[in-house]
Specification:
Oligomer: homodimer
Strand order of the largest sheet of chain A: 1-5-6-11-10-9-7-8
Largest sheet of chain A: 8 strands, mixed
Structural class of chain A: alpha+beta
Shape of chain A: globular
Radius of gyration of chain A: 29 Å
Strand content of chain A: 15-25%
Distance between the termini of chain A: 50 Å
Chain lengths: 453, 453
């Protein structure tokens, strides 16, 4: 038992400062969600495996954390499966629950299960941890938070505009400079249709996506290597060479895609969203980017991705429109649009740039030193009054050496220390020390509040 | 896939209203923790089983949710154990992690792991869910929240006083009438010592605990049945017949226990705590109760339990002093005192008594109806301004029939609805409807804020 305890790899403890910083991020996001009319739901950490399996692809199934059934779980497992030592087959017999892998599948499950109580459009937000048995590495954890906002049951593009405003609100409040990248799945389909390679949409978008890194020539080589005919690649060139501002890009796209009904629809939608978002004013840069191809198997309309401008890190927020959230649970045709803030990456960004307001790290406002029982009681009377006014304060619990008490004051970063010794008790005053300037004042206890403002 | 999805038994979904209500409770508790100078930490949902096992007794080990190892977990499991179909033995080979069972053991593990960074006294709070594979029943769930505050590294009884004040603060703010029951483990030891039954402390306290329910005579019968000699039972009678207010009970105890050093110390401690807590004034009733015996194997000083006065439910908060939090992780001698708010039971109490403030159920302040694209854009301009002022508001996304939009307004309980139709757009005004009174006003958009205050 004397071995030093540890935590599972890929998981983290958060101490007081870290938790305060993370809560600042969660609170900022939650406040914005509420301001925009999204309402909170919460779902259990554990879901039935029948709910989770098959929703994230074969690779995703392997990354689920499975809960071992309670009790004598082997009792009803077939002997031949046990004897075969086939882990995969046996896990189906000894495990019925898993930890949630994201917030989207639990949300879909929630909507279907509560469909009689839900009025559409339904705007929900959810801020909870998720778990993935991924190989841990820098910036990738086995337990991390997602902060999702979705509106389902409305096809209006105002929802898209509002979600972009929500992103804008959050990063403005966090003071993080970001670019919001926008695309529309219909534009990608239009491109593939136009060059006669409908089936190759994934290969094409994967290659296009690399243009910033490897350049136009190498992208064309890769497409050729993947078997896209030269004639098709030539037709792709105008897409790859889009330039100018958003409106110029959209005009160019509109011309190029005029013969694809789906592609034209995509351009039109994107244009509407960009123009209305622009009219309302914003803090974040907006960037139409036809190489953006996240969630290709899932999104059917707008695709959104947010990148930090001042830190090298992957996408810190993303989302898009989907048209079949709940089909897999037997409730087809429910469309919606949503975004997910990657709180753990946003935390990394804020840490890198040290963007926390001063107040986030402050644990307590006033620490009262302890000079003995009578003095402590007098202090506690004042502590009680300060707390009533919402000013966090505490008494150092033990009447020990001053040096030790002051070192505690430093460690908790208390901005003010109050001392009530025998003399002060007799005189009916207190000594208030400003820990930042080092100054000390003799004040009456009722004046403490005035001085610490 | 057409089967209706469900969630694991003993777990719960929380919809918007329920989540808002629960957040009201968590926020109230968190605010009090901060006001009192406790700082937040968070630990992972999963802990290594070596950390969890053996800390909650044999029964507790069985109630741990275990995580199946990832990948081919059977590969290295010994054949003989697999073939034996011994679930317990096999789980030690195929599972290394479990879900946390409470917040105390993870806290102890955290303190040991971070001991070089922690300055004592360390006041931490932690609000996180825990999981237990208990048989689900009314008021008992497999996933529920604990809200813990502890101070470790200080023996001062001011900590006890402060924790009582913290309890007082929380239930005053929640407007729940409660009684705080207090005992001291040393008093129980003193009683057992005095009647010469040191080893029978558990039997004695279990029986004493029933006095309210079954009466004095039946308690004595039960003690006799358990083999406590008649002479000892007679010595117990004065304890069982304590009456009067706290100070009278403590005086009586002081006399009865004068020959037990430990018992006397317990009475003295309790007296000090009660007197100082009384001097500072409080909302909750305080009740010295020698039958209180929670955490008998763990607590060494004060024992605290909180009962709701207006709802029949078990303890809704509890705690006490311990003198060896971290010994089991190789760091002996760290004492502390802590309390745990049972948020899920408090939630049940508030639901029974309908104690939520009006504002908790309110999802959004102002809903703008949608009369078409131009009108919607004008609405969104105002929505943006209201949000800047911190007033939650939204546009109904689709330009559909008024009836449908109004029914949405009702369902989300919006207190105000704003209508901007063609006429209003031309006149540069808006129609503001108070959904509570049914009144409608024509106002300028800049006056909305004034009217909804």
């Amino acid at each position: 038992m004397a071995t030093k305890p540890s935590i599972p790899k890929g998981t983290r403890d958060f101490g007081p400062l870290e938790t305060a910083r993370r809560n600042y991020i969660f609170d900022t996001i939650r406040k914005a969600f509420r301001l925009f009319g999204y309402t909170p739901i919460e779902t259990p950490a554990m879901e039935n495996l029948t709910t989770l399996m098959g929703k994230y692809g074969e690779e995703g199934d392997k990354l689920l954390f499975r809960i071992l059934n309670s009790g004598d779980y082997l009792k009803d497992a077939p002997d031949d499966i046990i004897m075969s030592k086939d882990s995969l087959a046996l896990s189906g017999k000894i495990s019925e629950k898993g930890l949630r892998y994201d917030l989207t599948v639990p949300f879909a499950r929630f909507v279907v299960q509560n469909k009689n109580d839900i009025q559409l459009p339904f705007k929900r937000f959810q801020i909870q941890p998720v778990w993935r048995a991924d190989r841990p590495q820098k910036g990738r954890y086995r337990e991390f938070y997602q902060c999702d906002a979705d509106v389902v049951g409305s096809d209006s593009l105002w929802n898209e505009v509002e979600l972009l405003q929500l992103i804008d609100e959050v990063f403005r409040n966090l003071k993080v400079r970001v670019a919001i990248k926008l695309n529309n799945r219909k534009i990608l389909s239009g491109i593939a249709e136009l060059i006669g390679e409908r089936e190759r949409i994934v290969d094409i978008t994967v290659a296009i996506d690399k243009i910033d890194k490897i350049g136009l020539e190498k992208v064309c080589e890769e497409l050729e290597f993947k078997g896209i005919p030269k004639a098709s690649i030539e037709k792709l060139l105008p897409f790859l060479q889009l330039s100018g501002d958003n409106s110029e890009k959209l005009d160019a796209l509109s011309k190029i895609l005029k013969d694809s009904e789906e592609g034209s629809k995509g351009v039109e939608e994107l244009k509407w969203v960009v123009e209305n978002f622009d009219s309302l004013g914003h803090y974040c840069g907006l960037d139409v980017d036809v190489s953006l191809a996240r969630g290709l198997n899932y999104y059917t309309g707008i695709i959104i991705e947010v990148k930090a401008l001042d830190v090298e890190i992957g996408s810190i927020t993303g989302g898009g429109r989907y048209d079949n959230l709940t089909g897999v649970f037997g409730m087809p045709g429910l469309s919606g649009v949503g975004i997910s803030f990657g709180a753990d990456r946003i935390y990394d960004v804020l840490n890198s740039l040290e963007l926390y307001p001063e107040s986030v790290t402050e644990s307590i406002k006033v620490l009262f030193l302890n000079f003995g029982e009578k003095e402590a009681m007098a202090s506690m009377q004042i502590v009680k009054e300060l707390r009533k006014k919402g000013i966090s304060s505490e008494l150092y619990p033990d009447s020990v050496k001053l040096k030790k008490q002051m070192s505690y004051a430093d460690s908790i970063k208390a901005p003010y220390v109050v001392m009530i010794g025998e003399t002060e008790l007799e005189e009916g005053i207190v000594v208030l020390k400003d820990m930042f300037s080092g100054e000390q004042f003799k004040v009456s206890s009722s004046d403490i509040e005035k001085h610490i403002k």
